[in-house]
Write a structure and sequence with these properties.
Chains A, B, C, D, E, F: InterPro entries: Ferritin-like, Ferritin-like_SF, Mn_catalase, Mn_catalase_dom. Chains A, B, C, D, E, F: Residues 219-272 are annotated as: Disordered. Six copies of one chain form a homohexamer. Chain A has two domains: 19-192, Ferritin, core subunit, four-helix bundle (Ferritin, Up-down Bundle); 210-252, no CATH class. Chain A contains seven helices and three strands; from the N terminus they run βαααααααββ. The first copy, chain A, has 272 residues and is mainly alpha-helical. Helix content of chain A is 44%, strand content 3%. In chain A, α1 runs antiparallel to α3, α1 packs antiparallel against α6 and α6 packs antiparallel against α7. The termini of chain A are far apart. The interface between A and B is large, with 119 and 119 residues.
Chain lengths: 272, 272, 272, 272, 272, 272
């Protein structure tokens, strides 16, 4: 179960409110790389783990809880950027057109739907979706999903950092970037603590997979190309089990033409 | 530009058509872990790479092209499972109720919308969405996204393999599982070929991030807990730059209460 | 069955067309608080009601029909704001950059997809979704959903009213705001006409619910806090059945660790 | 900021695992009436409130935090219903068809995507969306949204309660139904504590709305009907400000035909 | 503006209620081929048409209005199939497992969310989306969209007709299939009444398009294939303006490698 | 199976990069009228066709393959417009506000999520969805869907052409407009090659449809109107089978009131 204190995890100040930046910050709340995604992702991953993975379950759950606090920080940042700005819609508008123009350059729903506050949407106003959450039940697969989530999340935060000059916003983002550094590293450390997790899922009996193509790079160029002698066409594969090879052409077999559908589907295009 | 031959990349046969399995296979076409996702993901990643990453651009584009062929194989598998089965809706039904009952246990849209064929949807009938695609412009971040996609994709394929007894389907899945083994390995090999890609994005000046919390595991338990002395609370972090430490408590700072919204939002709840 | 007359329910004039305002108006058509939602919501609610609720069924259906006319008024307002304006894209552009810039400040799809007309989307261009519609089959629950829909819809309309100076638009919004006043009131009057509708659903035997926590405010603060002596921690509850009380701490029971998943899910992360 | 303890808020036991019920429970997690919605809704509402609404801000935030714990309880219930059942897919299947048939009667993604665990989706497998969240910035409007959310949520829980015989599940649902009773009552008590919140938003100057139709029930029947003398056509309106009246016909004004679109839209359908 | 009468456009009776068929019928309400789509599509198309297309505007609006009545008929059919059936969940269940199994074979939300009634979703429970609506502002393009909508809609209705034995349902579907016949024909007649509508948009100056490839079928096979001498590689094109020709190979030009992104995007994958 | 060459199908150059135009171009990639839609649509249609439609299967598959190359051209155009422009965010900004304002006028995710490159979304940033794809299994229905897709797609391309002055972009769009001309014509030629495809699906026994209303235009005006004597109220219908007639009024039959729902749904709104 969860608890909450009114204090933020880290201070959020805005020197010069900027409703445009409030729109950009939404990506870090409800976007594909945002904090709602990682909070939900780590929770659902944790809830799937049985007793023997207790340490990982705690790791996931504690970080999920921290991410909830990051949503809170970012929502605060959005609201502080929307309110009290001299660039606000109603104050600097000389006529209807310029008002609406200013507003549409922002996220109009932050005003129209939310009264100048944050929303569970991304920087284009597209709602957060549970479809972003990856929780496969296989811990190694999930940890790679988490490395990716923190990597793209940190990239997002650095891009936001680059485009604000506000000292308060820079400071908050510097904190969130640091936490993403930690979280990337902790998921990688957790992966390192597993024995032979590759290829995911490692528990599948590898002899059941097709042995002709499981370590072969297959060229899909129109004509045959020479082996590029790249790290993915020769040498031992990272899973330590196979040797990379090179296939200059896709095998090809069968033409895939299906049987006719049932007459009851009325798929025959012509009058009979 | 693209080319196509009528031959499949690998043969697809179905001994005993099973419309229920046709529903499950949709997850591998239009699902979060499906082939539409990786085909689109690798393409958009490739199209973002400038000249200096030419080798990676080719790697991504050739594999994207292969994945298009996997969508084709799976669509063929779906159609062959839907057509000509003795378990088909219209043939084994004695009355309306049992017909409809059988159908609703399947994916009804494969019949109603598609005339017994495959669709760009997942195993619950939810349409494929571009929101599944991760293409950040940062190659290291993208490669981790690809390791994850192939890891969860291979897990999906093994689960499908486990639940079919059809020799043709087992054979096709054994082929796809093998390709996922290769693809996981090739993305990891590509990651290994980069110099110091961590933390993603590695080009951000790390001195700009908050130095107090960038390698600290932060407990979010209600009361202070002792250091679990886990691989993520001590030792050198996987990025080789920092040393893990342990914080028994979140820092906490400020209460996040925002300024009042503009009167023009009519957010005051009472008549004044 | 439905009928239609070419006349609008209320006149829609635009003195000074403004394509930016046309973007904002979309929220009132296809947004979460928009007219498509209430039209569909009231219809589906009505169609679920059996004979004994005939009066409510008529009430819902007549208002649903009115809301269809409001979509029509708003679509007219959008089109009139998009066409013939001196602020239009093609006329005031000096070069390609300023044209495109002006356009992207608007909703580009109103031009690109719809030829300067209205669309079933919100002010960020996100399509209307059936997921906004609430029709539970329980009349009391549905009437509260309707009070909410009209309350947030009226709030939206007042915000649009605040940000336009066009007399025609102000007049149309003044009419729609008035209708929302009526509709809020009529749903509340309908709620008042029910006997003991609380708690929704009132027909559930209340003795079957857990009697320890059904009127207790439960604090989720980290440490125990004193009873705030608020209207929700003491006194008789609005449903007239229970007395509010205060729990300074969540009960807490069991740790939720699940059994291990089936081996056929290949969730074991390591090679065995 | 948030904290978490491994204990559940209330015990979750399952006597007889049932993967079908695990599908139904998803509605209470990621559905329109589910706990993800209320948790997010109460948070975003709280984060928008300025200092003068501190008491309401705390009320919302504490309840949001409790709802996070309800997601956790339900996810635990889902996983316990999916694992270890004699009705599980792999164990009771005699052949591929019956296996897949059993699976498709369940939510296939709980197996294929999540390894027998819970997901952020509804009972049809449709992902949770931020579009369910209502947070208007106007406290009265938001409180009505919360009454509705708890009313439809409680209705959902009673329907789930009705369709399970498992004593553990009945007990958990009895607890959640009780909490929904409390939450409905607390939002109504909070509404009662406001002075003149109607019509929402009450701070809009009511003289600005059209005075002819703001308390008139408008019939949309094809022919004129007599006043039904219903509680919404006569008497004082619930907001205490107006008197209901009856209009037997919609006013009607103007035909809404728009100007022609710009030639640059190429909307002219014929070759000129 | 709209009007409504309580009478249905055509009688809806159900002899033997069947909750499974109620799930299938949802496709005709909220699906891609459903009545919500055409009702909204014809309305938005009509609202975009200026005065000179008054006849078409009326045609579209009158048919849109009829489609609203079809939603009503189908919603009635759904509810009548869900209620009072001996196959209903609560009555024929001997234990929890078989109850839930029966329910999950149906659309669980029709029970859980809607109390045995219709919803604005498709046969997989996916909500209706405004993204289905096509209204381009170009009348010829829109009329082809309408022919398609009625063609796929009629196909859906025939498949539903095929799979029910209920005389009432067969009769209702026979009526709806007939209306789809009329509507297909009326849109084709409207297309025929236009002068030279091809290629859509016909008002674009055709000399501005690339003259080398505007009537050439371009083979995308890997190797050059002979001209198939098909109706689309030779003869006069249906628009009456060009002559079909055959290109055995795609032209091909340039490699599409983009410039490097701005350093502020931190897209460089390595530490520098 | 598919193949790919690094060459583009047609050259893509940008003289003056314009990040605003990059936003508009997204509609042609991931929008309702975009190239992702047609590529996927033609593929899924092709994969459903049995042997007797081999010529159509090839036609569909070859064009699908070409469309993949159009996505590639457009993605290249987007990236070239985003990178190296003097109008780019970071270079021409004097302070944070103007930077963010410039960015929000663009698609912020092209920068924040994709590092100045293309995405599988439309011009409002809404992700591509499989819900746009129409593949009914009935070839005639599908060919009309394709005529529509190319018609609305060509309309989109002409609108983009109208709003750019960049010679490179005009040239690329001139090429794509030409291909859309060809594709519209080829689908119409394919329709012409079918015998009696109307009404879709033509294989349904037309005597089973209601014979009273299958060629009657039904007025939905409030009062009876005279026959407009339009091409859709008189004369032979385009399918060559029926004669149009005119009904001045909808038939009307039955009131659609459903039976009461099961008590286990707790739909009774009052305490009993």
């Amino acid at each position: 179960m969860f608890f909450h204190e009114p204090e933020l995890q880290y201070e959020v100040t805005v020197e010069e409110p900027d409703p445009h930046f409030a729109k950009l910050l939404q990506q870090a709340i409800g976007g594909q790389e945002g904090e709602m995604r990682v909070a939900m992702q780590y929770m659902f991953q944790a809830w799937a783990l049985p007793e023997e993975y207790e340490g990982y379950r705690k790791l996931l759950m504690e970080t999920a809880t921290e991410e909830l606090g990051h949503i809170e920080m970012l929502a605060t940042a959005v609201t502080k950027n929307l309110r009290g700005s001299s660039k606000q819609m109603s104050e600097d508008a000389e006529n209807v057109a310029s008002t609406a123009a200013a507003m549409t350059g922002q996220n109009p729903r932050q005003f129209l739907s939310a009264g100048q506050s944050a929303m569970p949407v991304d920087s284009n106003g597209v709602p957060f979706t549970g479809g972003y959450v990856v929780a496969s039940g296989n811990l190694a697969g999930d940890l790679y999903a988490n490395v990716m989530a923190e990597g793209t999340g940190r990239t997002l935060a650095t891009r936001l950092w680059e485009y604000t000059d506000d000292p308060g916003m820079k400071d908050m983002l510097s904190y969130l970037i640091a936490r993403d550094t930690m979280h990337q590293n902790q998921w990688l450390a957790a992966l390192d603590s597993l024995e032979d997790p590759l290829p995911v899922p490692a528990s599948f009996p590898q002899e059941e997979e097709n042995q002709d193509v499981n370590y072969a790079f297959m060229s899909t160029r129109r004509g045959q190309q020479p082996d590029p002698e790249a790290p993915w066409t020769q040498g031992t594969a990272p899973d330590g089990t196979g040797e990379f090879s090179y296939l200059a052409e896709q095998p090809g077999d069968g033409d895939g033409v299906p049987p006719a559908p049932d007459p009851s589907t009325y798929s025959v295009p012509e009058d009979e």
